[in-house]
Amino acid sequence: MASVSTSCLRFQPLLWQSNNTCQAAQRTSLKLVSVSWAKSGFPSLRATRFRVSCAANPLTMQKVCDIVRKQLVLSPETQLTPETKFSELGADSLDTVEIVMGLEEEFDINVEEESSQNITTVKDAADLIDKLVQKKAEAGA
Amino acid sequence: MFPSLLRAYSPMKMRCCFQRSICSASSSLVPVQLPSPMETHFWYVLPDQVKSVSLLNQYMGLLSPIEKENVLSMPGHQLQKRALLARALVRTTIARYQINGHVDPRSLKFKKNIHGKPEVVWQSEDGWCQPHLHFNISHSSSMIACGVTSNSRIGIDVEEKQRKIKNNVLAFARRYFSLHEMEYLSSISDSEVQHQEFIKLWTLKEAYVKALGKGFSAAPFKTFTVQVKTDSKRSFVLAEDLVFEASEIMVESLNDPKSLTSSWQFALLELAGSHYAAICMEKDKSIKVGMKVPVRLTAWKTIPFVEDECVSGTDAVMPIGGLIKL
């Protein structure tokens, strides 16, 4: 499971998929956690309070971060957390719309304009994408 | 000293309004009279021109604790500076109009309406005189602007002319703009011109939605068309004023054709050679439907507390769309 060391914390991928371990992790409040996904090239997420969210697929999160970084031309040192607001990264409305469009292309989904107005954070985007991808999979099945 | 008193009519038909008032370091703001009906005041600051650390600290001192927190939470110096200048511009601009005795930019309080549009909270003792000052701000990475009107809702948007669009322009227009707008952009063969027209359309649409003040979901971009009817560019002198009629800009709602989109007036400008700026304001109620009344525009390039330069009538402000009186 999770072991806290001074420099980094590694989550096993199982944590995200298994409901049981997810709940267990939620009961634990983690303070000052630094997560680095060296192998898969995840951006390093640093948060003072890291909430484990079952809805956020780490792969989705990574792709969202990549697209956001590309659109906003962020320096590699800029930290991105699930709660980071696009506006806090200097994105204006045109940037946000471009990000949504980039996400639509990446995930082959269609985001309703009304929903896209509600995407203000990295997590909003990832959650919506997962929902739409799932809906699409169910429709196709 | 009010800029309007210093306008000189030049026989060369070019009115140059070049009032440079350099304030001493005693941090005073040159007071300004409120705009008249159908008049917009447009104030802008170029972040690259603001370098003094002590000046930036002075601006920081104007902000509320929450505003300070928001500024400092931005990642990186450039973004912090931009956020700081935006708040400083809004506060100092509104303070210039000295409404209800508010001369100190620090004393202004802001709130958001139910749709999230920022407004001033006017505190007057008797509360009987509610000021009708409306404002809206916009920023690109290299310009921050604030538009001010009396008694008329306003929305503005500024964008760099050369702003890079990561997606394909037509794909973007197909996805987000109305059919008519997409067809208009498709008809342009030169990709540079197409890019420029895209940016102009974006700023106009953005300004309209911001003027409505009901949030973006109230008027999704696909549901209305902004049309720029380009006649041959004409400019003529009307009494002492220079009136530009570059084109007629109209907005039409696709969902609700009966909605009062004819009550909105647009102005499109090229600023400082580098930016497009769109202004959308509500027509004065006294103007009959169908009457063409120009938007009076006065524009200042400012470094609050340091320098105000009235630039309307100079090359810095080029009208490129709408009916504008400088």
Automatic annotation (TrEMBL), chain A:
InterPro entries: ACP, ACP-like_sf, ACP_chloroplastic, PP-bd_ACP, Ppantetheine_attach_site
Domain of life: Eukaryota
Keywords linked to the UniProt accession: Chloroplast, Fatty acid biosynthesis, Fatty acid metabolism, Lipid biosynthesis, Lipid metabolism, Phosphopantetheine, Phosphoprotein, Plastid, Transit peptide
Subcellular location: Plastid, Chloroplast
First-listed, main subcellular location of the protein, grouped into a coarse class: plastid
Domain Carrier intervals: 58-133
Residue spans crossing the bilayer: none
Classification via Gene3D superfamilies: ACP-like
Pfam families according to UniProt: PP-binding
Family note: Belongs to the acyl carrier protein (ACP) family.
Function recorded in the entry: Carrier of the growing fatty acid chain in fatty acid biosynthesis.
Protein name: Acyl carrier protein
Organism: Hevea brasiliensis
UniProtKB/TrEMBL annotation, chain B:
UniProt superkingdom: Eukaryota
Enzyme class, spelled out: transferase
InterPro entries tied to this protein: 4-PPantetheinyl_Trfase_dom, 4-PPantetheinyl_Trfase_dom_sf, AASDHPPT_N, P-Pant_transferase_sf
Annotated ranges, domain 4'-phosphopantetheinyl transferase N-terminal: 58-144
EC number: 2.7.8.7
Signal peptide bounds: none
Domain 4'-phosphopantetheinyl transferase: 153-237
Annotated keywords: Transferase
PANTHER family according to UniProt: 4'-PHOSPHOPANTETHEINYL TRANSFERASE SUPERFAMILY-RELATED, PHOSPHOPANTETHEINE TRANSFERASE
Identification of the protein by name: holo-[acyl-carrier-protein] synthase
Taxonomic lineage from the root: Eukaryota, Viridiplantae, Streptophyta, Embryophyta, Tracheophyta
